[in-house]
Amino acid sequence: MLRFFLRRFAVAVLVALTVLTLAFLLTRVSGDLAVSIAGPNATQADVEAIREAYGLNRPLYVQYFDWLGRAVQGDFGQSYFFRDRVANLIAARMPVTVTLGLVGLAIALVVSLPLGILAAVREGTWIDRLVGLVAMIGQAMPSFWLGLVLMIVFGLQLGWVPISGVETWDGYILPGIVLAFSAIPSLTRLTRSGMIEALASDYIRTARAKGLTRLSILVKHGFRNAAIPVVSIAAVQLGFMLGGSIVIETVFALHGVGFLAWESISKNDFPVVQAVVLVLALIYIALTLFADLLNAVLDPRLRTA
Amino acid sequence: MSALLEVADLRVTIGSTAAVRGASLTVNKGETHCLVGESGCGKSITALSVMGLLPRGAVRETTALRFAGEEIGRYGERQMERLRGDRMAMIFQEPMTSLNPAYTVGSQMTEVLRRHRGTPRAQAVDRAAELLARVGITAPGLRLGQYPHQLSGGLRQRVMIAMALMCDPELLIADEPTTALDVTVQAQILRLLAGLQKDLGLGILLITHDLGVVARVADRVSVMYAGEVVESAPTAALFAAPEHPYTRGLLTCVPVPGKVKRDEPLGSIPGVVPRIQPGFAGCGFRDRCAQANAACAGTIPRREAAAGHEVLCTLPPGWGGAAAA
């Protein structure tokens, strides 16, 4: 177990370093930074002054290690547009995005696990096909469009929930549902196929021969084994949701990290864009690592190997 | 001896296959009844029918299915759930995959007792440890905390047997429990089952295609072919005077020390078990039978060759002179 953990942890650190390096290199190959910071009306002297001020005249590897050293300490520099430290900006926006992601994941799990189990138990019947159809429709629906439709129906016409902002908790409902829709199809299909496989196995026959109740057979013996791949995918989906919330936060005017990214892209505020991409990538890596560990906890064959 | 399990005229249809066609058998208290025959002749389906564990889509009909005097043929799923694992238990052919990989041996064993008796965990653990010791597992305390993948096939089958015994069942159905195991382990498991039966007074329905096993442990043998019980007799009588051509054929396929001469080829039965469609009439074995005649396509009489020795065949008792085996 400890060896497994250390190996996975080492891999995660390597991936994180790669992401950091890529994030650094991408800003350097996308053009002369000093020119883009100075803006279109700057003189050659202004550009040189900025080059000097930001240390852009130093060798690339010096800049890289300088930047890396700061980045691992959480210092992503200064935002040009917001006139604040990038780290402060992200810290202030993160709670909204994380809350939204967790709400989305919770809704996705509450919907897709029972649907997947139901489809597996009723495999081949019209219920199974209906679930498959719902999953397909969910996958085909663009999230900005679904967001707008929900807003019109439940926000404007019925007036049940706010259509923008999260001043109250119910502001998370609509964006949470929209976000969940992106994860529901794959989670449902995975639950279904995992359950079908589990229910056809010999240990389910044993469980039935032991006279266990239907619920115990389905959940304790069946779903417990089907859940292992579902957990990994759910963690990865949460990562997607945190990153993919750029569109939804914009549609619903939620001031989270995604909205921040959108604002800074449109304002050419590259330190913020860079930091947001980096932070989301690191969260993604952390979630994948977490999923691996959770898998090991759930699957004794991994844990005791 | 009173009947523990009585199956009368069991018919099971799965899709367009008549898997069991009017099988009858009786298991008495404290008796080992062996069900023998080739693969695909309906032995496992018969056993699963008794447990109410038939696959979805299988249709079961009987004139009587009595367990301890009670007609269970009409039982619903809830009532069968209460019987299974409590008063009747089953062990399977595949010890490697029959235990849930996600739970410890202890958890899977105690679950049975907790489900049927509501026994507190600590007491159920004690009972599980006691039974693991009873089935010959050393260090039961250690095994209880282990997961199935940490155990060998023989150990897993012992765990399955111990788990089946948790609630002191009256009937144990064992579906080829030794087929997947090493020969040395096979013998141990059979000795274990025989010992348990003697000590606990269990009725055992043992499914096997190994006649060597039958000769050692069975009180009574039923030979199944193509979904029918073609011959049923006390073990000694069956080996001494087999009546059905299929039974005789089976016996010539098995080397018996002292009876089979060296350098003489063992017998074999040409052909395979046919897939029988519903509505099939006559003897299912007639296409492979050297003695087949016109009468075999009609209704086959079930007749008594001796007391307690029934045969489903048109041939006269003691046909062909001395018994083949």
TrEMBL record, chain A:
GO terms for biological process: transmembrane transport. It holds the Pfam family BPD_transp_1_N. Belongs to the binding-protein-dependent transport system permease family. This is ABC transporter permease. It comes from Neoroseomonas marina. The chain crosses the membrane at residues 98-121, 133-160, 172-190, 226-252, 272-294. Residues 94-291 form the ABC transmembrane type-1 domain. InterPro entries: BPD_transp_1_N, MetI-like, MetI-like_sf. The keyword Cell membrane applies. SUPFAM superfamilies: MetI-like. It is found in: Cell membrane. It is a multi-pass membrane protein. Keywords: Cell membrane, Membrane, Transmembrane, Transmembrane helix, Transport. One of its GO terms (cellular component) is plasma membrane.
UniProtKB/TrEMBL annotation, chain B:
Gene3D superfamilies: P-loop containing nucleotide triphosphate hydrolases (3.40.50.300). It is found in: Cell inner membrane. SMART domains: AAA. GO terms for molecular function: ATP binding; ATP hydrolysis activity. GO terms for cellular component: plasma membrane. GO terms for biological process: peptide transport; transmembrane transport. This is ABC transporter ATP-binding protein.
